[in-house]
Structures are given as C-alpha cells and as structure tokens.
Specification:
Layout lengths: L24 E4 L4 E3 L4 E7 L2 E7 L2 E8 L4 E4 L3 E5 L3 E6 L5 H4 L2 H27 L2 H16 L1 E2 L4 E4 L4 H8 L3 H13 L3 E4 L2 E4 L2 H7 L4
Antiparallel strand pairs: 1-8, 2-7, 3-6, 3-8, 4-5, 4-7, 9-10, 10-12, 11-12
C-alpha cells in the first residue's frame, strides 16, 4: 500500500533467478540490526525489515520492506529486522551480469517508481499537512488500499506499533494516542492494539478539513 512508508510486496518475473547470480545474502533474526558501510542496493528475500535514519539520537523511519522490495541504502541508514528476515546485497560495480538482464532492469525501474511515489507522498504530507491531517490520511489510504468491509465498518490491521506509527506520522506517541481517542469519541474510529475499524469513512474524509 502506498501510505505510511509501507512498500507493497513486489512480484519477481519468472525470468529472474536470483540464486543463479550467487548474490551475497544476509540473514537476521528478529530485532537484529544491520549497518551499511557504503551505498548498497538490497532486495528483501523474505521477512520484514525497517529502514531508518538516525540523527542526534532521533529515529526517522523511511520504509517498512517486505518480500522482494528494493531499497538503495546509504551509510547513514540502519536496517532492523521486524521478523526473521534475509536480503540480497548487490553492488552495481561487482555484479554486471544481473544488471545486463533486461527483466531485472525493468523490475528495478518499477520498484524505484514505487519508492519515488511513496517519497513524494511523504514530502507532501510533512510539508502541507499537520499531524492530525497526516493521521487521517493514513487511516483513509490504508482503509481504501487493504481494508476489509465488515458490518462494523472498514477493518485493517497494521504490523507496526503505536510508537512506530507516531514516528513516521511526525508526532509523539502520547499525542497520537490522544488523537485516536478523539476519533473514537466522535464515532469515527475503533482501535484495539494494531486493529483499526473505520466506522464511517465518508465522515472521516470530511473531518480532515476540520482539524
């Protein structure tokens, strides 16, 4: 889904067999950290990871990545395994064969197009919306992209905790929690742990202009 810095799972063309290229792989257990010493292209083989920037002991989450997502990581990026994960490590200088594969190049371009759209959304949200508007946009986009209609409303579940949500929505955990309480009191949202139910999507869309 193109929101909240989640990248959707990429589909690998049948013509690409990563194993035959003998690419270096790194496996991490849940909670383990990987630091990049130089500019590195990674492709997630399995699992789920978080890519962050750190400055002055503050974290800014860039992405949550899942199967076959691609990310160009710099030396100031940190990767954390959200669950047991593995990823390929690719250096354009050392793996000419795979970059000569037209199917792989097309796959790379499609993946980076997805990243670019996501990053533009991030910039627009941070530049032009306050945190309440960003939060409502996240709820609306997520509901429309992956939500399931139920008798109660549109339901979806996230795999990130409240602190992580607050981080990439650009606010504090307590502030976000208080705003969720506000939405509950207005009968717009029901939340239990990581499960959200949008009780009235149209009214939520109207409310974004009031905050």
């Amino acid at each position: 889904m193109h929101c909240c810095r989640f990248l959707i799972e990429n589909i690998i063309p049948e013509d690409i067999d990563f194993e035959k290229f003998n690419l270096p792989k790194k496996a991490l257990k849940k909670g383990e950290i990987y630091y990049f010493e130089k500019k590195t292209l990674i492709i997630i083989k399995r699992g789920r990871v978080k890519i962050s920037l750190y400055e002055d002991e503050k974290e800014f989450i860039l992405y949550f990545l899942t199967n076959y997502n691609i990310c160009l990581c710099l030396d100031d990026n940190v990767l954390e395994a959200i669950e047991d994960s593995a990823f390929y490590i690719i250096s354009p200088d050392n793996f000419h064969e795979i970059f000569n594969n037209p199917f792989f190049c097309n796959y790379i371009l499609n993946a980076f197009s997805q990243n670019l759209i996501l990053e533009r959304d991030i910039i627009k949200n941070l530049a032009f919306k306050n945190f309440k508007q960003r939060t409502i946009s996240f709820l609306i986009q997520t509901a429309e992209n992956i939500g399931i209609k139920t008798d109660k409303g549109i339901e979806f579940t996230t795999k990130c905790n409240l602190e992580e949500l607050a981080n990439f929505l650009g606010t504090q955990r307590q502030t976000l929690s208080s705003f969720f309480t506000e939405l509950k009191k207005k009968n717009l949202l029901h939340k239990e742990h990581n499960k959200f139910i949008i009780l009235n999507l149209e009214k939520l869309k109207e409310y974004i202009h009031k905050v």
